[in-house]
Design brief:
Blueprint lengths: L9 H5 L29 E4 L12 E4 L10 H11 L3 E4 L15 H14 L5 E6 L1 H12 L4 E7 L13 H9 L9 H13 L5 H8 L2 E3 L5 E3 L3 H12 L15 E6 L10 H7 L3 E6 L6 H4 L1 H14 L1
Parallel strand pairs: 2-3, 2-4, 4-5, 5-8, 8-9
Antiparallel strand pairs: 1-3, 6-7
């Protein structure tokens, strides 16, 4: 069964999970199931080699954060694969990257999108690493499908609190929506124009560069954002900014590592007891000198911490 024994019977009677999550208690993943109309097909990149055939450890699934994509994890995915020998699969969430768009954007939906992909790839056991929004998706996946998750790594986010900074995301959605670029110009010039228009609202050049990775040119020569800004803005307050309250009482009892940045207020050293209500075996490591983007700000230390955990668990 996909739910661990603690999540069966009594606990499920105490909570109300949207109908979509009923997929979690069934081994049947039929493409004709009407519930699948609410899932979307996810784009992904796989990092593997011929020597992987000798690796008995589960593949590592990587889930990016809000307004990110699998491409942001390209270098780190290669490094983890090279260091651990595990197959690494980096996934684009719905409404991001090359994955399909949907008006719905909840952690329950995103967890089921991942379930569908893992079924398609015939993977019955995986380790999961998620950053920020992807971290919460990874948590929900592990709570609903404990038998599917070998180990869990969550980067700079928790199920018990949210940084006040997260609410500034709405201004980023609005700023991106307000960018206008004429058709037919070169991508380099389009990126420069986008940067100039975002600068007055977003002074941080690193953040602007991150957002501009979402700028794409269509077949007609026009420019657009590949993220579904209307859906993200519509779902942000009620679904993206907070952890699903209807999962209280569920537990994932497998190996769990929470990695935070010492300069970030998304997760702190005093949060561990509350985190362990959901993840009893959770450990917490804070990376000195890192903020919310731990993996890009302190990549060597991040790689060391992740690979050590994967080697031991």
């Amino acid at each position: 069964m996909f739910l661990n024994k603690l999540c069966q019977k009594n606990l499920l009677k105490q909570i109300k999970i949207p109908a979509l999550s009923q997929l979690a208690v069934s081994r049947t993943y039929s493409s004709t199931d009407p519930s699948f109309s609410e899932t979307v097909d996810l784009a992904y990149a796989s990092y593997e080699s011929t020597s992987d055939e000798n690796c008995t450890r589960p593949p590592l699934i990587i889930l990016h954060g809000l307004l990110g994509s699998k491409n942001n994890w390209n270098s780190m995915s290669k490094a983890i694969h090279r260091t651990t020998g595990r197959k690494v699969i980096s996934i684009d969430a719905r409404n991001h990257g090359d994955s399909r768009h949907s008006s719905q954007h909840t952690y329950i939906h995103m967890a089921h999108d991942v379930m569908k992909l893992l079924k398609k790839l015939d993977l019955s056991k995986v380790s999961v690493l998620g950053h920020s929004m992807g971290g919460r998706t990874a948590m929900v996946l592990s709570l609903l499908c404990a038998d599917l998750v070998s180990s869990l790594i969550v980067v700079d986010i928790s199920p018990v609190k949210t940084s006040p900074q997260i609410y500034s995301m709405v201004s980023l959605f609005d700023a991106m929506s307000g960018v206008t670029i004429r058709s037919g110009i070169a991508m380099s010039k389009a990126r420069k124009l986008a940067d100039e228009q975002l600068k007055s609202i977003i002074p941080d050049i690193n953040l602007r560069n991150f957002l501009i990775t979402n700028l794409v040119q269509t077949n007609t020569g026009s420019y657009s954002w590949r993220v579904n800004l209307p859906a993200l803005k519509e779902n942000f307050q009620s679904h993206i900014s907070c952890f699903p309250s209807n999962l209280k009482g569920l537990q994932y009892c497998g190996p769990s590592l929470f990695i935070g940045g010492s300069l970030s207020d998304y997760i702190g050293k005093y949060d561990l007891p509350d985190i362990q209500e959901y993840f009893p075996l959770a450990e917490l490591t804070l990376v000195e000198g890192a903020g919310h983007w731990v993996h890009s700000q302190k990549p060597e230390k991040f790689l060391e911490v992740v690979c050590k955990f994967l080697a031991e668990k």
